[in-house]
Amino acid sequence: MLYAKGELRPTDAVAIAVVGTRRCTIYGGEQARRFGELLAGAGFTVVSGLARGIDALAHHGAVEAGGRSIAVMGKGLPEIYPPENQALADKLLESGAWISELPMRAEVRRENFPGRNRIIAGMTLGTLVIEAPQRSGALITARLASEYNREVFAVPGRAQDPTFFGSNDLIRRAYAKLTVCLEDILDELGEVGEKMRPTPDNAADTREGAAAGPSKNVASGLRAGRADHVPPRRTPRLSQAEKRVYECVGYDPIFQDAVLTASQLPPGEVLAAFTTLELKGLIKRLPGQLVVRVGRV
Length: 297
Hints:
The protein is an alpha/beta fold.
């Protein structure tokens, strides 16, 4: 039995798990939030465990992108653990859910979490490991995902950083695909990945259209081996500065100084916009102070 609070939708069959260590580095935290935003913006439901560190930041990224996110709990649903994630958990209920297989009064125990991890791995199309040391619950989730014939992805980290030893080892042993952008995930998902990939047709979808609600036939279409009911890619939220900078960047490389001149914004705002647009997977900075679009809004 699964207990649930919030709303579960057929489109939640199109989900990716994002997992990692509770004691993450700044880089790992940035990547967790970034991939949460990218996946939710593409129409995936982001599933994680609402733990400190990577889990919470992945949920944050999905919520900030206006997408769906589901928290799989390692305790009963009435109280949130850790308590500092209460506000985030409440935010998830606006477009997502909490779920647990444990009775309502079940307390937090170490032995609860491996069982929680199997649910995360089983209810998603693949598991993305952001940052994991050699002994990590995220590695359990990755192993279970592989056993369930799901895809496994991992973000590379610094070779000498102990918090990345586990995730780097997944890549080294070819247990996980090295992942640095959304396209790396889409490439492994077959028809589903192709349907989620930005195209001239779905790039024009508005946020209002996405908010109208996904098709009820997504899950049945996937079970039938079709991907014709995958929800459209959602448009990432952009600030006014980000929009102006993005409009100045084309699909051919352009010098950053030219963007600075064309945008008529202070240099600090332009540089900040470059960073956030790159994190959202919309532009890429190239050698020689060049920048180019890699996504569509």
